[in-house]
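We give the entry.
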Amino acid sequence: MKALRFCAASLAALSLTVSAAAFAHETGDPSEKVTVLQDQMLKNVPGKKALMIEVDYKPGQSSIAHKHEGTAMAYVLSGTITSQVKGEKAITYKTGEYWYEPAGS
């Protein structure tokens, strides 16, 4: 599981999911804005899809601890974001930086 804390961040994320199940992004604040940019079934990997979203956070806003079924790749469009995978130290990313999270983290 990972916890995310944001400072006026806009984040683009790509998730390669293990099934065609609907995306669920849990948050600690109902005002979190999640926009699906692309939701595409992978023709060469039956039953799997790629999902690209943009998540906008207000200063100090955070997501509750959660994990992703599939691989996640994230890119900070603006602001800063602190991400922490369970058992690891928190890392702060700023505009233009990106990171990778393996499935299940």
Summary: Residues 81 and 93 are 5 Å apart (CA to CA).
